[in-house]
Specification:
This protein is mostly helical. The chain has 9 helices and no strands.
Length: 196
C-alpha cells in the first residue's frame, strides 16, 4: 500500500523542506556563528529532536539546505557556442554566490569545513565536484563539436575554470564581474580554442 498524497511520506517531505527553508532564512539573518539546531527549531516551530532525527549537526542541515536552492538552478545552457555558454553560466553562478541565501550560507559552510575533514569531503562530493563535472562535460561537448582543439585533456582546465572564480570570490577583495569572467574565458579559449 502506498502513501496517499497527504499521507506520512508527503507530510514528511513537506516538513523537511520547511525545516531547510527555516535554516536558510536564519543563517542569512544571524550568520553561521549565531546558528544552532535549537534556533532553527524555534524558527520552524518544532522541537529540536525533530531536527536531530534528520540531521546530526548544523553543518549537515546547511548542506541539505544549500542543495535545495543551488544545484538545479546552475545547470549549463547548451544552446550557444562554448564561449557564450561559459559566460552565461559563470555570470549566473557568481550572482548566486554573491547574494542570499546561497552566498552567506555557502561561505559559512566552507569556513566550518576547514576544521572538519569529513565536512570538507562531503562539501566537495555534493557541490564542488558537481560544478567541476558539469563544466568538464560542457567543454568536452564543445571539443567533440570542433570548437576546441581535438585531443587535449580538458579535465584540469575544467578545474581551473571553476577554481579561479571561487578563489577570487572567497579569498580576495577583487570583484567577480563580467570583466573577470571574460578575461578567464579569453585565456581558456586562447589555450584551447580550435583555430583550424
Amino acid at each position: 500500500m502506498t502513501d496517499s498524497p497527504t499521507g506520512p511520506r508527503r507530510r514528511g517531505a513537506a516538513r523537511t523542506r520547511e525545516l531547510l527553508h527555516a535554516a536558510l532564512e536564519l543563517a542569512v539573518e544571524v550568520g553561521y556563528a549565531g546558528l544552532s539546531i535549537e534556533a532553527v527549531a524555534r524558527r520552524a516551530g518544532v522541537g529540536k529532536h525533530t531536527i536531530y532525527r534528520r540531521w546530526p549537526s548544523i553543518a549537515a542541515l546547511l548542506l541539505d539546505a544549500l542543495g535545495l536552492v543551488w544545484v538545479s538552478d546552475l545547470d549549463y545552457r547548451t544552446d550557444g557556442d562554448i564561449r557564450s555558454d561559459l559566460h552565461e553560466q559563470f555570470v549566473r553562478s557568481c550572482h548566486a554566490l554573491s547574494t542570499p541565501p546561497i552566498g552567506p550560507v555557502y561561505r559559512a559552510v566552507i569556513a566550518e569545513a576547514q576544521a572538519d575533514p569529513q565536512l570538507r569531503a562531503t562539501l566537495y562530493e555534493r557541490f564542488l565536484s558537481t560544478v567541476e563535472q558539469r563544466t568538464y562535460d560542457r567543454i568536452l561537448r564543445a571539443q567533440r563539436n570542433g570548437e576546441l582543439v581535438p585531443g587535449a585533456d580538458l579535465e584540469y582546465p575544467a578545474e581551473v575554470l571553476c577554481g579561479t572564480l571561487y578563489y577570487r570570490w572567497l579569498l580576495t577583495p577583487r570583484p567577480v564581474d563580467e570583466q573577470a569572467i571574460d578575461g578567464l574565458i579569453d585565456m581558456f579559449m586562447a589555450a584551447y580554442g580550435n583555430r583550424a
